Structure formats: structure tokens, C-alpha cells
Amino acid sequence: MQALVIVAHGSHLNPDASTPTYDHADTIREAGVFDEVRTGFWKEEPSFREVLRTVESDEVYVVPLFISEGYFTEEVIPRELRLDEWDLEAWDSDGTSATHATFEAADVEKTIHYCGPVGTHDAMSDVIVRRAESVTGDPEVGEGVALAVVGHGTERNENSAKAVRLHADRIDAMDRFEEVEALFMDEDPEVDDVTDFFETEDVVVVPLFVADGYHTQEDIPEDMGLTEDYRTGWETPAEVEGHRIWYAGAVGTEALTADVLIERAADAGADVGDAIEEVREKTRTVGTDPDAGTTGDTGRDADAEAGAEAGD
Prior knowledge:
This protein starts with a strand and ends in a 30-residue tail after the last helix. It is built from eight helices and ten strands.
């Protein structure tokens, strides 16, 4: 038997923080390739420390639903899962290239295939593009349109910015969009000045965050000038200094993210059959993002922002 365990940050304060995790788990369960699909959280139940005890399978693929490598993926999760032989060198990573490492979790007598975070997998570039398709309602979006991939950026974790640049460079190499730039909240180039970086009139802005929280639904919209007060919402697209800004929700809320979770497990040796193709087909529902131009009361969620690697 093989199981997939999706581990994410969660939040005590923002009830929407875990919604993408549950949604992707449901999508993968419906694909039927794992005998079990479980979720575990840092700030919700079941916890990282207990989640393996909810699994009956003896072969377990653990995939972090995090944006970048860093404190949580390198220290917290391995410690809480009791991967006693964990050594960062097992990933042999340059900060964005972690794939997987296999350990025996003696206390639960299971083989644990610990995978790199979804946010650095090559397939996440496709999710970013799909997010652009969703918010514009155009499955062919690209010609005459620019793309901004937005991340947190922080001196505490340089890998946070590496992940954003990785995908911006990969998408730029596709030659699909007129211009592609990586922008940040807390380092240069800053998303506040989004219109300064593009000549193209139409700009799609996709935040590389796992879930929508105060950064994606409050800070970034106000910083870009989409609205003076996030509580009043904003138009999609919004007119800002001669540009039309199409602002998408967090990339991790895109249904195609479920495919990346499966691909991470497959890279570690999981038998997933045709699930990757099936999930890609099932999630190919293109239409205007109903949440792209409105906001809810997300609150100031310190829990979900404890590490820039986690995303909102």
C-alpha cells in the first residue's frame, strides 16, 4: 500500500489557509492512485508530529505544500516527522533543486519518501501559466500580455526569491508572454512599482503563495494601486498608470497544483499510473476567476506568514 501525505502550514487565525490543501487532497483521492491521502499541518490538526499515525500504508510519500526550501522544509517537518537520519545533504540541493530522500521512520515502522516542496518543482511554472489563463478567462493568454510572478522575498530565506526567479525564467523561456518579470514585496524589484517594469499594456500578476491571506488580499493590491482600501475590493482588470492589471489569487489555489503534488510523489518512486494526465485534464477549467477582483475579511494572519517559504 502507498499513501500520500500533504503537509502544509495552516493557521489558527485564517480559516482559509488550509482550504487549498484540502481541495488538492480531494482531487488526488478522486484520481484513486494512492491507497490513502492524508493532510498534516503546523498550525492545525492533525499536526506534523501525529499525521504519520493516521496512515496505515507502509510506503508513505510526504510532499510539503510550501513555496520554497527553508526553515520548515529543512528543519521543522523532518524533526516533527521524526526522520532521525535526516541530513540536509540528502537533498543535494542548490536551494531550488531538492527532489526526495528516503528514510525509515522506526517509531511508526514505515518507509518515508520525503519530497521537495511543490513550489520549486518545474511543473509549478505550468500552474502559474494556468493561473494567468484563469484570471483572464483566455486559454491562449500570452500574446500582447506581460506576466509578473510575485513573491515575498526576505533576508531570512534567500531561497524564497530563488523560487520566484526560477519560474519567471522558465516561463520567459517559453516565449509565450511579451514580457516576464519576477517582483517582490520585501526586496527589489518591488511589486509596488509594477507598472515601471513593463511596456506591455496588459499585465497579469500572479502571486507565488500557497493560499490567499493578508499579503495577497490586502498588501499587494494596495501596494500596486488596484485599490486604496482592500476592504472595498478592486476591478479585474484594474486601470493603473496606463496599464490594465489582471490580478490573480494565490497560485496555490489553482486546481492544477494537485498535479504538482502527484508529480513530486512520482519523482520519488510512487506508482501514479495515468493520474498526472487525468488531473491535468480534469483541472483544465478556464474561466474568469470569481475571487480575483473581490476580497473577504482575511485578517492579519501572523501564523500563515511565519516563514516566507510557506506562502500566505
